[in-house]
Amino acid sequence: MPADSRFKLASLQAYQDKILATARPSMQMILNPSSKLSLWQSKIGGTHYYLPVNTPHPQNTHGQAMFMLAQINCAELPPHDNLPKEGILQFYIDADDDLLGLDFHNRLAQVGFKILFHSHITTDTTQLQTITTPQWEYTPIDQEYAISFHPENQYISVEDADFGQAILDIPRHDSHEDISEHIPEGNTLLQDYAEAFPAIGHRLGGYPFFTQSDPRDDDEALADYILLLQIDSEGDIMWGDSGVCNFFIHPDDLKNQDFSKVLYNWDCY
Length: 269
Known about the structure:
This protein is an alpha+beta fold. It has five helices and ten strands. The longest helix is centred in the last third of the chain and has 8 residues, at 189-196.
């Protein structure tokens, strides 16, 4: 077993093997404000890779340009197995909507949000559109951030819909509603686990954090979806009342570079 001081906690020792079995690669994203990034660099907010002239810009239902939330230049990523090795992946949301494009009834419908993947990148600016998206009242980000990527192995988060099943052998649909009933009285597993293995912060892949609940828990069709991107509240980045934003994708779709069925969610306190 690896020498991990977190497993010195008595409440976690009995579950060590199960915890280690959930290891999943993730890339922590460290953000720094910057106004000197090129159109092609990975970033949060700011001026993005302008869409090729034959590609329509994402618009909301009122015909307004959507806000570019995040841009990932896959060629800048450290070695990895899951994400594309090149191309630019972009995440847009409707920032003129008080729910920021979130549809509680159909989180896969790319009406209030849009994911674009440019597998082939041009550096000829004459072949690119010039798009300026406004800062709306509800825009969660008001400046441009550079991203540095830091690979890590992450263990399942206590908020994940599969936590109870993975760690406590509880049927998936009981894992969050009744999870405390499966823990011995006086055992501080949930509190200690949340502190030892937090899933907060910005990341690509790995396990998510929620302030409310996992949207995959209520839909069996979404059970296999994995985290694609998470953007947390930090500094000038604010999702409602200190919330967090997540995008999920089916592993097969990610392998096939199909971003048409991504699940979008954000919640706050």
